[in-house]
């Protein structure tokens, strides 16, 4: 009887992974979608520019800690935004705290995205295809959270809360894809390598 092992590398015999869960099948389909190569080709020069400096490469790839820093950094915006949503459920007494956490999530998203872009820039093509969809989902989430904060500051709190809830849906999608990139694709450079 075959079983699914999430730690089996993506390049392993896929017949051993049957039956694959539907979300995994969807992500495999993204890997094989050559139409995404156009987006990959558009984004690659941006990643190359970010990685042009050896100093930036070392920092963004996490050489100073010995492993990629993007995965732990993702905990920051996720934690801030989900905590903000929990406080939103508390109503007016929790409004200030919810808004502060929402803003902290937005601020922490920048270094998180930069480190992710750095890892993506040196990845294999199939991994990059999943990566552009991952980045798109997270970009939509960030836009919704930013718009939510703007609406809150304009006194339209209910609209802001609804936008945050929508942002959470895209954040979850991006997180699922990100998990696939790390566990199944092993995204991220060997931070102990010489990156000069």
Structure explained in plain terms:
The protein is mainly α. The protein has helices at residues 22-31, 37-50, 54-61, 70-88, 95-121, 125-153, 157-183. 68% of the residues lie in helices and 0% in strands.
SSE ordering: HHHHHHH
Largest sheet: none
Total helices: the number is 7
Which whole number gives the mean pLDDT? 87
- Estimate the global geometry from the Cα principal axes: globular
Strand content: under 5%
Termini gap? 47 Å
Domain count: the total is 1
Low-confidence stretches: 191-196
Secondary structure class reads mainly alpha
Q: Using DSSP, what is the number of strands?
A: 0
Helix content: 55-70%
Oligomer: single chain
- What is the C-alpha radius of gyration, as a whole number of Å? 18 Å
Give the SSE layout.
Blueprint: H1 22-31, H2 37-50, H3 54-61, H4 70-88, H5 95-121, H6 125-153, H7 157-183
Helix pairs in contact: 2-5, 2-6, 4-5, 4-7, 5-6, 6-7
């Amino acid at each position: 009887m075959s079983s699914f092992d999430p730690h089996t590398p993506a390049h392993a015999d896929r017949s051993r992974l049957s039956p694959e869960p539907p979300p995994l099948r969807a992500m495999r389909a993204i890997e094989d979608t050559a139409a995404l190569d156009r987006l990959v080709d558009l984004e690659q020069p941006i990643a190359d520019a970010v990685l042009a400096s050896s100093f930036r490469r070392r920092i963004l790839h996490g050489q100073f800690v010995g492993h990629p820093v993007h995965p732990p950094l993702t905990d920051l915006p996720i934690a801030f935004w989900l905590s903000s949503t929990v406080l939103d459920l508390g109503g007016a007494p929790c409004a200030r705290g919810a808004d502060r956490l929402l803003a902290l999530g937005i601020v922490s998203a920048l270094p998180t995205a930069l480190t992710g872009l750095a890892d993506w820039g040196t990845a294999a093509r199939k991994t990059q295809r999943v990566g552009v969809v991952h980045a798109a989902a997270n970009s939509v989430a960030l836009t919704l959270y930013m718009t939510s904060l703007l609406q809150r500051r304009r006194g339209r709190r209910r609209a802001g809360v609804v936008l945050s809830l929508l942002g959470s849906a895209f954040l979850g999608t991006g997180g699922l894809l990100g998990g696939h990139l790390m566990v199944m694709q092993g995204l991220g450079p060997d931070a102990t390598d010489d990156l000069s």
